[in-house]
Amino acid sequence: MAFSSSASAFLTQAKHHVFLSFRGEDTRNTFLSHLYEALKGKGIGAYADFKELPRGEEISSALLEAIEKSMISVIVFSQKYATSSWCLDELSKIMECRDSRGQLVVPIFYHVNPSDIRKLKGSFEEAFVDHERNRIDKVKGWRLALTKAAGLSGWSIAGDKPEPSVIEDIVKDIVNKLDRLSKGDCEGLIGIFPRMEQIKSLLCFGGEDVRIIGIWGMPGIGKTTLAQAIYDEVRGQFESCYFLADVREKLETPAANAITLRDQLLSQLLNQHGLHIGTPRMPFFIKDRLRRKKVLLVLDDVNDWDQLEKLEICHDHFGSGSRIIITSRNKQVLTNGSVDETYKAKGLGYNDSIKLFSLRAFNQNGLVDDYKDLSNKFLEYAKGVPLALKVLGSTVCEKNKAYWESALNKLKQHSDPKIHDVLKISFDGLEDVEKKIFLDIAIFFKGCGIHSVTKILDGCYNGTAGWAITNLVDKCLLDDTRENNLGMHDLLQEMGRIIISSESRWPEECSRLWNSDDVCKMLKNGKGTKSVEGILLDLSQINHEVQLHPRAFARMPNLRIIKFYNPTLSRESGMLVPSDQGLESLPDELRYFHWENCMLKSIPSNFSPKNLVELRLSGRNFEQLWNGDQNLENLRVLDLSHCKNLIRIPSLSASKNIEQLKISGCKSLVELPSMVHLKSLRFRLLGYGLKNLKKFPELPQHIEELTLTCTAIEEIPESIGFLHQLVRLNMSGGRIHNLPSTTIQLHALRKISLQSCRNITNFPIVPENIEHLVLGYTPIKEVPSSISRLKNLASFVMYGCTRLKSLPTSICKLKSLVFLDLRGCSNLECFPEILETKRLKYLGLSKTAITELSSTIFRFVPLEGLDLSGSDIVEIPKSIKQLSNLQYLYLSNCGNLESLPELPPCLHFLVAGNCRSLKRVPQWEHAHFMEAGTFLLSHQIGNSEFLFNNCFNLDGDAVNNIVANVQLIAQCTAQVFAMKSSEVAAYNFPRYSNGFLSCFPGSKIPKTFKNRSKNSSITVKLGPACSSKRFLGFLLCIVVNFKGPHKFKVCGGRCQYLLTTERLDRLDRDPLELTHHWNWNAPFCISFDSNHVILFGSGFGREINESINNHFDEASIEFYVTACDFDSNVEHIIVQKCGVNVLYEDAVRSNDKEVASSTNYRANDEEGLDDPTTTIRPRHRRCFSSDEVEEPEPKRLK
């Protein structure tokens, strides 16, 4: 897998968009010609051979090539299609390309029945009688191709709709398919499509469970590329996404403390810039937020499962539908952890290796004839490793044969060639400055920001770093990542280390040092030399104190880079301790000085920092930088974070190029120097936890981000009004009493955070254009009516404001408000009538004193989430059904709530657990769930959840209605899937939706489940494989029994399927093993105080469903549940009973059959008899059929 310079191989080789296979005698001058013109009209290149082939003539090689070079093949089956051996040869070739190349195939059944084709009836039977006399050698292959093609999803044209309208629909479908192909070309990644499909099948997109998948293989094999390609393709389906690269480097030792890295990850997933938790375990609120998000997370290059534990990566921390991909060089890392599936990444095959090498060496897809023998020798050497293929190809690009042969001879000099030997050939072709910059990055700056590294190395190499880095990226020696960081493969980095080590047998005479033993020995003995240009020391690799020689750096006048750091973020590491004489000097050539846990009290007084570009120091002993003014004209970054004893920062008047100042954790810092003249300080001033900082600093007018949290500042000066470019202001946790009046002059300010400012008792003064206002956990008692002037306010957070009793009616003027969070405002007794807020999507009122809601709240048509959990609400107004976009309704722990009204049709999360007074739940209408089913599929939402755990006062009708509702939504989701398969395909919805999850107290399987068992396993018969019955999925029910005195929390479970057959014509088919995982979405864990009934659905996607329909007639299912507390006695949680119904497409479509069985259910009813197949029907309702809908859509067959 690798990047090519153009489109992917599949799309590059395609000459035609569509190949049309048809019987000219039937359709040439009618349907086919119209379809051909319609495709041309959309700019689609369609190949159609309109010549009439004489009977008996063989199909031409040109026609076979046209099939191979087409992206989609359209087969128009007509009455006389099978009479043509030419058509049947075309069909065989098309199906061969589908199987071998993944070509898309679209069958059109033009006035023929697909069943007649599969079973060779009617005209197809007659045609094959003739073929068996004349072409017996090909008949078997033709018959197989016909059967496969007729079983594909396609279009049926039977005269029930005008042909132009049908053709228009077909062309739209083809355009959508071509569009998805072009979007999925992954920017020319070679050999990646089959691998991506295999991983995507393991990820099971569309399911509502949380799945963790591992990719493992040797370095350079393409694990990261594969994970990135999948990430890029599907990231749009998730609420939050993050690709965390180089986990191994960031968390290298088993004892690493990953708090900061974990916080960085959470900051990205929760879309909260600068999130800082600082504790080993996530707070409950953060976990709860994360569990409400459907995230896509890639953790790249993990080498120990302990690293994932430190990052708190596990199933129960992510929202329903989340997907986590982990790459590692060690399979054991994945198998020892709780990944759901693993995938081994393998090297490229010979053909793909040729393509990749040729693109790099010749800028074309194939080998040059004169270079074939030489090329094959390079291919043999690379052995399918994409990184080696890219680098070798780039090395010999545009070189003559003599150079090629020389390069090969150089490879042969190595007795045991390895990949890094191959890569050195590319290094040898670099210019001197490129070599130096490559080595600097390999040792010191891998993974660092391009902008920062460029500035540092520009200072070392006279402004040539940008040019050199661009060349190194082009020659595949560096990767320019999406986050603008410099990436480098491990093997390339190792190659750089070997090159440096070969400079001298004595480490202190090499240009760069990184081995901890060598560095410590040199610094302890003061044995450095003028050859040393850079030192890197990983402090986590030493577990003791190393005493520095007073002249540790005196003999290294050319030292440009010092980097003493702890990549594991662990406090438990060794340290460099100066001797009693201190440190005499530092080299004036220093460009980059990074020393974590620095034990110096100050920088040596004779050091001239004029060449410094970045200065990063942290340490509990550090008290001051230097005395007096210094020439700091090249300084770009000053990071003094966690210098706990730093009292002051000297004048920065000469640091006119400084861009960032970071002072977080400087607890002793009392004041900051004037920064008014720092014109480059545009980006940020970050300071968290400055508890002794009492004076607000003087700042440059163009600063954009200001963070000063937990300070002793009590007053912000009026001069803040001059910071006209300030966008984000965070003064959380401080002592300020309010914002100054001049704050209203900050027209660029978009976000203010004053969370946990305990002295703010009055609503702060904020500019009118503010968009995000966070005032949580403040003692504010009242929100003024003047809030109506904040016309752009989109997010308003006042959670935990326990003194707040009411909101002003003027809040109705906030027309831009999207997110309103009042959770935990325990004295808030009423909510105003909001009439003009047209964009509100989330309203949080949990744990408030509100007992009733005004009906006007339900005029918020855009509202998607409403949280009333833990409130004193007594009744939900009936007008709630007007909220046509409401998807989430949280009512858990509403102890006074007695009944539920009819709810909106698109609601797919209802959490009503522990509502101990709840008695009545309505039965919803069929149309309600038809609309909901359409919504679920079109929005690619796999699950609805209706949770009533521990609702022990539910009356008999309520329980009956819950069962009926659950079965109804399963039926309607399946029905919508069947009726609208073309729309579903357009959304690329890969699986049949689970449809629902539900639970309520009880001990019996409902009677509507005819397949039942009194233990945790069951075997059910599947319907016969015929055209009229299409398998869609299972409707499942279990009774979970809890033995013991303890309460239990269940986070989900799984179903293990074994599909088999007893039919003689299918005995060669191996059993199919499948696993379906299910998990609660919100909340993640469900507490059960007694036995409960759990209902859910299970489906497997089109291809697997089709395989089940065609090849299997029996399913054995084993049920399991998973406890949230993994240390608890899981043996006390038992699946006591189970029930299964089988869903079929024809059953949910038909209108001439009704299920006579009632949905009536009582918790203690006895179970009924088994029935091998069951169709679910709503009580007193029936499903729509095509003749009940005016002007039906053309049938899409599956």
From TrEMBL:
Annotated region (Disordered), positions in chain: 1155-1198
Gene3D superfamilies in UniProt: Helical domain of apoptotic protease-activating factors, P-loop containing nucleotide triphosphate hydrolases, Ribonuclease Inhibitor, Toll/interleukin-1 receptor homology (TIR) domain
EC number(s) recorded for this UniProt protein: 3.2.2.6
Gene Ontology annotations of biological process type: defense response; response to other organism; signal transduction
Catalyzed chemical reaction(s): NAD(+) + H2O = ADP-D-ribose + nicotinamide + H(+)
Cited Pfam families: C-JID, LRR_14, NB-ARC, TIR, WHD_ROQ1
GO molecular function, one term: ADP binding
InterPro entries linked: Apaf_helical, C-JID, Disease_R_plants, Leu-rich_rpt, LRR_dom_sf, LRR_R13L4/SHOC2-like, NB-ARC, P-loop_NTPase
UniProt-listed PANTHER family: DISEASE RESISTANCE PROTEIN (TIR-NBS-LRR CLASS) FAMILY (PTHR11017:SF479), LEUCINE-RICH REPEAT-CONTAINING PROTEIN (PTHR11017)
Record protein name field: ADP-ribosyl cyclase/cyclic ADP-ribose hydrolase
Top-level taxonomy: Eukaryota, Viridiplantae, Streptophyta, Embryophyta, Tracheophyta
